[in-house]
Amino acid sequence: MKTMKTLxxxxxxxxxxxxxxxxxxxxxxxxxxxxxxxxxxxxxxxxTYSIFNLLDKxxxxxxxxxxxxxxxxxxxxxxxxxxxxxxxxxPKIYKSQYGSNFEFEAEQVLLVGEGVLKEAFDALKRxxxxxxxxxxxxxxxxxxxxxxxxxxxxxxxxxxxxDFEKHLGKFGFEVYFYDVRxxxxxxxxxxxxxxxxxxxxxxxxxxxxxIRGGGSWESLQxxxxxxxxxxxxxxxxPIMCGIGHESxxxxxxxxxxxxxxxxxxxxxxxxxxxxxxxxxxxEIEKNLSTLFKKxxxxxxxxxxxxxxxxxRTVKKEIFTVKTGLESLIKNLDFNFQNYFKEFDILSxxxxxxxxxxxxxxxxxxxxxxxxxxxxxKNKDWWCQKIESFLKAERAKIVLSSPYFRLKQGYTITLDxxxxxxxxxxxxxxDQTIKTKFYKGQALSRVKKIES
Amino acid sequence: MPExxxxxxxxxxxxxxxxxxxxxxxxxxxxxxNKYERGMELINNCKNRLKEAENRFExxxxxYGEEK
Lengths: 451, 68
What we know:
The structure holds two protein chains of two kinds. Chain A is an alpha/beta fold. Chain A contains nine helices and 13 strands.
């Protein structure tokens, strides 16, 4: 009889295949490491991922690597055979029905080797330039006097941080330091994170200073990454970069608002306006006192001039008025004298005329009196004369009166109406006629008419 | 009442403007007096600010991936 043998292990657990692979992956995946090697011949590029071999140049050992496509895009160049790279990632067993494989999943890929780095640099530079990330239109000027500074660099670096801090003048700067790795495969993420952190938590900073000391071109690669370039471009706080030596110009330098050639230079740029101001302020103080003194002197001179001018003008004016008044008085006096003379003449003339009139009146009165007297004298003579005239006339009238005729024996014959009859032809037979005599009258009847 | 914290940049700009104003030809005495007093006050404030200007350094403790 066959007895069932139990495999003796430390644990009593029996895995299924899949469970075992999961068990292994649980151990493998947390093992994050960086591996450097050369890309081998076979590269399987798919739209979303790539699979390639990483080759050890010494013993030609090969490690199968898996990488998502977006991680490779950041390289700036295509994967190709012979390319030296550093890969950050973890080991993993890919479970499959066709045979599970051990592979290395790359989380981040970094190019190594100056030639290839230069190539990637040029490609990224062209790309970002085309997008306008280096355009001067996007450059923001730093505030004239930067005071609050966000400093992004490594505290372990040999030169950058001490150089920057040493050369920063004592102008009351407030430096907020964010420690990041500035080299290696972790640098990019940390720098990007620091840029975002400052923008989010301290948006009122005057400037962000991103610096790194000198090193090989390879060691500056974090500052040639697209992620860092885009984070700099997106920053609302103005950014000054001082990377490497004076001759090193990284993509970060090109995107930044101000480029300092070195960390020391970055400090000097920040000092510059403060230094100038501390010198200028003394000069302005001196200048202002001199200018103010000059203003007072000018005003004093002007006052003197005006005082003098005023005195002279007033004196002249008084003289003119005085002369005018004198001349006026003289004229008035002269005119009054003339008037008085004229008045005298007029007065004398009037007096003469008055006397003349008086004499005339007297004469006229005498004349009137004489006439009156003459009239009185002539009155009697005239009366007699008129009386005799009237007498003569009366005699004439008496003589011509009808009564005087009647007296002489003449008669007057009248009709019934009393009208005198002068023509017998107007009489009628039997007509009664009245005959007036000197004394009395008689009525008679017409018997015969003879013409 | 505590004095308002000096804004060096604004104060310095005003000092420069006052200095420039004094260079002009037409100057009114009252204004000159006011501007001179203001200028001197700002200059003294700025000088004091420059005198006692020690730098302050502070390290951000927040690190990658952490929330404030």
